[in-house]
Design brief:
The chain is of the alpha/beta class. About 35% of the residues lie in helices and about 20% in strands.
């Protein structure tokens, strides 16, 4: 009993410390948001690498691996408790195409990405914007839950039918062909 309480306290402290360090708690994407993000992936994604940056508890990463079994899904999470939870889940729900890494996604080379998905926070999106411009190959798709990329023009936005009308942003890494913002409300999510 004491061991269980100790582990719970250590887990809670770890989440608090990493939340304070990064400015955000590990918050999973809702099912509606996951549905929209997966819908926005290009049809040609099957033979590519999909990154989930800040994968948290792994909910979206496992769905991506299940729904795109021929794609390689790389989930990156730095906070130890959500990372360990994802790794434990991976023992029970084996996905040969899913790799879960514990590291800063700022240290990950993304040059092989076909798509990048994230649910971060404004400060991280600001820092990530330049990294993505520098590293992503042409025609790579970026999909972000709630927060937009700084100095990028999205190719589309879906507003979820939820209390906050949560925006899901889609970008394509192609300066010449990136159209102006197209916003639409979709009520079936």
């Amino acid at each position: 009993m004491i061991l269980v309480l100790f582990l719970a306290l250590v887990s809670f402290a770890s989440i608090v410390i990493y939340s304070l360090r990064f400015g955000i708690t590990p918050m999973p994407s809702s099912k509606k948001a996951q549905d929209a993000m997966i819908l926005l992936l290009p049809l040609t994604i099957e033979k590519g690498v999909i990154y989930e940056l800040g994968s948290g508890w792994g909910g979206l990463a496992f769905r991506l691996a299940k729904e795109h079994p021929k794609a390689k899904v790389i989930a990156i999470e730095l906070s130890p408790i959500p990372y360990l939870f994802s790794r434990a889940r991976q023992l029970l729900d084996k996905r040969a195409n899913l790799i879960i890494l514990r590291k800063s996604f700022y240290d990950q080379n993304l040059s092989d990405a076909k798509a990048v998905l994230c649910y971060l926070f404004p400060g991280a999106m600001r820092k990530l914007s330049l990294k993505l411009k520098q590293e992503l190959p042409n025609q790579c798709t970026i999909i972000s839950n709630t927060f937009s990329l700084i100095n990028w023009e999205n190719t589309s936005v879906i507003f979820l039918d939820d209390l906050s009308a949560t925006p899901i942003y889609k970008y394509t890494n192609n300066d010449r062909l990136c159209p102006k913002v197209v916003a639409k409300r979709v009520d079936f999510f």
